[in-house]
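Feature request disguised as a bug report, sorry. It would help if multi-protein outputs had a clear separator. Right now it looks like this:
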Amino acid sequence: MNEQDIKNNIEEEATEEIIEEKEENIESIDNEEENIPEEILHSPSFEETEDLVKQRITWFRKWTKDIPNYIHSFHVREILKENRFNETVQMAGLLHDIVEDWNTTFDELRELWYPEEVIKLVDLATHNLKTKDKFQRWKDMMKRLEEACDRNARAIKFADICDNVSGCHTMPNLKKRKRFLYEKCPYFVEQWNKWFWWTEFYLEFLRRYHKQLFNFVTFEKRLAAWKVLWILIWISFILTVWLGCYAWYKTNVSLMKLSLTIGIGIVILMWILHIICFRIPHKTEY
């Protein structure tokens, strides 16, 4: 056997070894894929989940005419992402409202291959709609979260409340807004204080809450001042009308002119006061 034949045999053996090594690698990859649960292999991406949320969560946010409802779910996911929670928690944050408010079932989520961990977090963050009183629903949920001892589920609900606080200035019903700020939020602060004390997550919630509370107190003061001034102006207007009637009865032209001037001035003052108190917006957004 000459030198050239030896070289050819060595090359052939090396080639066969490389081929065998590649086949072994492919076989090991196939075996690994077979061992991966199907729910992970087929689990939807964030883009697919966003499309699902947009499809299921329709209409606009409460008390607004131009903010889509699904934006809230996106905000919850962003808050969780900013606070470095993993992708499973972020995915559950995107889906946290889809079962509670939009006629989607947990079985449907399973059929769409969402992991059980995501479904479990969504379940813990979902209200029991059988309870009629909304505040009691919150208390029941806080109790479930307390018993579950699941920090990720608590974080989802915390992010949910955090975004709701940012948008509570759009509530047209002052009684509901006052109850939310003076009853619900202090209750949440008490809970979050136990679970997320002195974290950036907790401080961000406090910042948003205090901002809205300050704005609401300011608005209440403006409303109270407007009511008092409105009553005084109406009393002045009635007295002016009485003065005008008296001047007309006495045929006193100068007194009639004076009462008419005062009456017009009061009407203008009422309109200016209305604009100052309600038409000029006060800062509430972030």
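(second protein starts here, but nothing in the output says so)
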Amino acid sequence: MRLPQVDFLGRKVSRLIVGSNPFSGSSYLSPQADEEMHDYYTANRIAKTLMHAQEVGYTASILFADSLMLRMLREYRQMGGSMGFIAQVAEFPLPPVMKGHPWTMYFQGGLIDHYIKNGQEQKVIDKIKQMKDCGIYAGIASHKTENLVMAEERNWDADFYMASLHRKPDDHVSSAISGITDAGKENPFIEGTRPVSLEFIKQCSKPCIAYKIFRGGYLARQTPQMLRDALEEVYTNIKPTDIATVGIFQKYKDQLQENSDLVCDILKNNV
């Protein structure tokens, strides 16, 4: 079976798309796991992983739009790759990102959480405008549902939302601000926040992408039934036109195919 597709911001997009944190060596499991991902995911191997994702039926991938990923994207396309590119952007110039021809882009969740916590909402509003001025749909991400609620209620003009199913502690500082990654910390996410995020996605009139479905990789180390339950909960509760993203680590097994098979089975009865 092929992954079902929906219209997402005017494009046919598979209901599960490829996440990017493992490509950047962000495991949220341990420093050793981070290093293993860095060693495994060379630019060439990332490009080949995306080619396999395309063959399985994924139609898009989220990528952190730094210079290394943009160069990798060129290699992927030279291989014949045709999946769409959703750019995660931070505080760097956008013209180089646009050279990668992204379908859309969104502002990094950790930065948004930091700015809102420190009363700098205008920086988020300005970034949304900068992205839209590129002639592209613009979204924002957050690990805190209340930040997305604020953006929607105050009409910050985002076209879509990236909603994390797990939040980070209130004292968390984005690595984009501190320069210190927390990816190697032992799963720095708070439990019990999934229902709140899923309710926002369901009620929100704008398109949404659910992320941190496996709690930063934690559930991927548990039983197959836990993986299925996590995915089934998501697709039962998000809107039929929403999508989800999951990062993958292909070193030991074909997680791309495994996750695709689970989603296809879950959605075969149009859940």
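Even a blank line would do. Unrelated, but nice: The CA atoms of residues 168 and 189 lie 5 Å apart.
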